[in-house]
Amino acid sequence: MTRVTVVTTWTDLGETAEVWPGRYWPLGATWAPEATNVAVHAPAATAMWVCTFTTDDDGNERETRHRLPEQSLGIWHGAVPRLPPGTRYGLRADGPWRPSQGLRFDPAKLLLDPYARAVTGEFVPHPATYDDPTADAPSGVDSAPYVPRGVVVRDGFDWGADTPPRRKLRDTVVYEAHVKGLTALHPDVPPELRGTYAGLAHPAVTSYLKDLGVTAVELLPVQQFVTEPGVSERGLVNYWGYNTLAFLAPHAAYSSAGSEGGQVTEFQAMVKALHAEGLEVILDVVYNHTAEGGLDGPVLSLRGLDEACYHRAAPPRAGGLPPYWDVTGCGNTVSTDHPASLRLIMDSLRYWVTEMHVDGFRFDLLSALTRDGHEVDLKGHLLSAIGQDPVLRHVKLIAEPWDASADGYLVGSFPPPWVEWNDQFRDAVRDFWRGDHSGAGAIRSVATRLAGSSDLYADDGRSPYASVNFVTAHDGFTVRDLVSYDRKHNEANGESNRDGTDNNRSFNHGVEGETDDETVVARRRRQAANLMATLCLSNGVPMITAGDERGRTQGGNNNAYCQDNEVSYLDWSEGWDDVLDVVRTALRLRREHPALRQRHWFEGRPTVPGGPKDLAWIHPSGREMTPADWHSDLAVLGLLLSGSPLRSPGPRGEQQHDASFLVWLQGRPGSVEVALPDEDWPDAGEVVLSTLPSLPEGTVVAPGSTLQLDARCVVVLRQS
Fold first, then answer.
1. pTM here?
2. Are 182 and 143 in the same domain?
3. 485 neighbors 513 (Cβ within 8 angstroms)
4. 686 is catalytic
5. Catalytic hit among 306, 364, 403, 564
6. What would the pLDDT profile of 129-151 be if each residue is shown by its tens digit?
């Protein structure tokens, strides 16, 4: 542990260096050649210090305290002369000790600036980092050796001609990836760049993503995060990153350029490189809770400045401390009722757009942030602020539309311009392909999801692309594990396999886990291809979890949040090439044909007078589905998608139409014969995608003929 030598002692917390009055905006540390302005929201504090750190030749760290001389509008501020970029710093705050009122000031606690734009050093759980909120006074034990510091950052990255792609949602294909896990084992990325922002921007990665056909990379949390003490005690780390400490700082561990400011420019260079390849960058952001956890959690930042402002309290109770209102399952819930807390979130979002050039956000457990008091309010503070913000209202806004409470499940409820993760798509598609066709209306449910989930999104003016479709995500089984395991296998997480969901909707095909049985492996690979093809060809925005297209496995672990190792990393040395080819083909068809990425809702009527319906559901016999069919246990379904008129005229100025497609989903374990519809399919059809080896691409099928579809397959015909 680094030894910290301070200039003053606790008996003399006075000013130790010249500090100018400065200004109360912007919040955080803003560098300029003559002085660095520091502004900190802490209205109840009686004193505030900025503490800077230098390291001597013997490796000892020296702390100098600069007392901020002014408080304006609840914000302490001052300008510290001649601080070079890269200076490490923290805050110390003094004030009343009244934990029952959310006032927990302890000048012995070194606090991270909530607006720090770079962070260096690790959080090491230690008694010095805690204060007992039931005690009569704070501990007074210095926490500096055990907590990270902020870094003074100099702006000025050369963005050149960087232009956000601003791709329409209906043309978007999302690839959910972990910065480290995507490249940690990539053989074509230089070893020193693997697992970093620079590694993700390497041509070997960007060319793969473009060839695959994705248009946006959605990164698991990259805001500076720390590992929960309970996880550290088990000798593990928080790998996913859903435990944010600093909302404006890119996570330093993903930087190959060091942690004292280099992480900022490396992140910016990554975004610039991805934009140059036409790829958007979406951040998975965690504003719903903070890394300080419950009342007995560590004092790291917000808790020592204005706990009552940032952490939502539960309804008062007789005697004792009021507990936190926790609808995140992580110990606390961030309040968006207070102006300072709301400002922190909004300033952070704008910073990532304006200074880091990201293209959108996926909000983890967004329902937790919609609370007015303790009730859900979709017209409340945060959504209203984002909806009217001239910067944020035009980026991609993706909601995880639930939290850890019973009333927080809000799928289909968020207002425009929000789009949502649609877990009902996930469940319906998994059930169909694992063979659960029981119950009246099961086939109707899956058809609704394939067509864009109009029951969820059509009633409030949103379009089919309001549904972000997925069959897997970071939490849960991978696609390979979905077809290889009936049960979760999370023993390595150290929680006796109690963590992670038991509702996997998976099917191991008769053998639990990996096997050398070629017949079982072939069935699994076909099922993986079926799942991926269904995802890529459904109406809405498809989201692929990194590696699913290559058969990535986590060995049955469906909650690998603490597995910073090969369990979580994408193994590039081998892959399920047949599944990869299906995904590439499906995404190419989607990209080339508007009929497969609809802007408007299907209406079940002709797009031109006398023409075929925009969408017809086809029974295996070749006729249209009837009301009775929708209430049967049918497991074979055809989608006849009529080519829409195209905007571009033909060479002679004539109206052109997109191709028409017939998509067959065969979910039965045995072979089925299906007939092509006569009236709406008068011409021959060419197989352009197939998960059946017996029916390869390029096969031409005559009108009015029949097809033999082997067990569980997807076949797509294009009208020639």
1. 0.95
2. no
3. yes
4. no
5. 364
6. 999 999 999 999 999 999 999 99
